[in-house]
Amino acid sequence: MDYKKAMAPETTVTRDMMSLAEETGNVYETVRIIGKRANEISVEMKRELENKLHEFTSYNDNLEEVFENREQIEISRYFERLPKPTLIAAQEFTNHEIYYRNPVKETQLEEL
Q1: Are 3 and 45 in contact, with CB atoms under 8 Å apart?
Q2: pLDDT tens-digit readout, 6-54
Q3: pLDDT (0 to 100) of residue 65
Q4: 41-45 contacts: CB < 8 A, separation 24 or more?
Q5: Is 90 exposed, middle or buried (0-12, 13-18, 19+ CB in 10 A)?
Q6: What is the rounded radius of gyration, in angstroms, for the C-alpha atoms of the chain?
Q7: Among 10, 11, 5, 6, which Cα is nearest to 93's?
Q8: Mean pLDDT for the stretch of residues 70-92
Q9: Exposed e or buried b per residue across 22-59, where buried means at least 16 C-beta atoms within 10 angstroms of its C-beta
């Protein structure tokens, strides 16, 4: 996934949690949904970064050979400039791009 195209803000944004919670009816459930999605995004981003940096892995154990790799630094800077996973997840939630379900609510509805 290209996180740069996520259209999420790159800095912290103050949000009205009550308006975010209108969809679920519960502020804590909303925070949990956004938090779980943020964890998923974070794992994806970390895996992608590790795969890109794996190309630059040196298997030499010689500590005297310390050199600066420009491409590796640029990749790291790119990932540092990306929006934070929580901001991406919150943006996805407000755009209704996250599928979620609550099995407890579903069983309560079935009992009625």
Answers
A1: yes
A2: 677 777 778 888 888 888 888 999 999 999 999 999 999 999 988 888 8
A3: 47
A4: 41/3, 41/85, 41/88, 41/89, 42/85, 44/1, 45/3, 45/79, 45/82, 45/85
A5: buried
A6: 20
A7: 6
A8: 87
A9: eebeeeebbeebbeebbeebeeebeeebeeeeeeeeee
